[in-house]
Amino acid sequence: MRHLKALVYVSTAYSQCPLQEIEERVYPPATDVEELTQKLDPMSLENVSKIETTIIGKWPNTYTFTKALAEHVIDRYSHELPVAIFRPSMG
Predict the structure, then answer these.
(1) Which of 13, 4, 2, 7 lies closest to 87 in space, CA to CA?
(2) Any bridge partners for residue 7, and if so which?
(3) Binned average pLDDT, 10 residues per bin, the chain of 91 residues
(4) The Thioester reductase (TE) domain covers which part of the protein (predicted)?
(5) pLDDT the model gives residue 77
(6) DSSP 3-state percent helix, strand, coil across the chain (nearest 5)
(7) Is position 41 within any domain?
(8) pLDDT at residue number 91
């Protein structure tokens, strides 16, 4: 991918749904992504499912929660490549 000139990430308008108002910016993550990954990686899917609602907090589902985390990760590495985060809504 050394010839990649830019990245457009397709997120969702619902990635920040716990907020009342959503601006065109990247928000801080709900949790530390690396720490969460280290905790969950060794766990079985069954055990992760048991604590899912605790992990996702105010997000309605894992889809919107992980989209929010992905936006943060992409933003963190955006100094290496021009990045755009697109948040389409249904409609």
Answers:
(1) 13
(2) 83
(3) 89 94 93 96 97 96 97 91 92 66
(4) 1-90
(5) 85
(6) 40, 10, 50
(7) yes
(8) 66
Identify the domain containing residue 62 by its residue range: 31-91
Whole-model pTM? 0.88
Tokens representing 4?
């990649």
Q: Nearest 10 degrees: CA dihedral of 59, 63, 66, 68?
A: -60
3-state DSSP assignment of residue 84:
strand
- The whole-angstrom separation of Cα 91 and Cα 69 is 24
Residue with tokens 């955006």: 78
How many distinct structural domains can be found in the chain?
Answer: 1
30 within 8 A of 69, measured Cβ to Cβ:
yes
Give the single-character DSSP code of 29.
Answer: P
Strands (DSSP E) contained in 17-82 are none
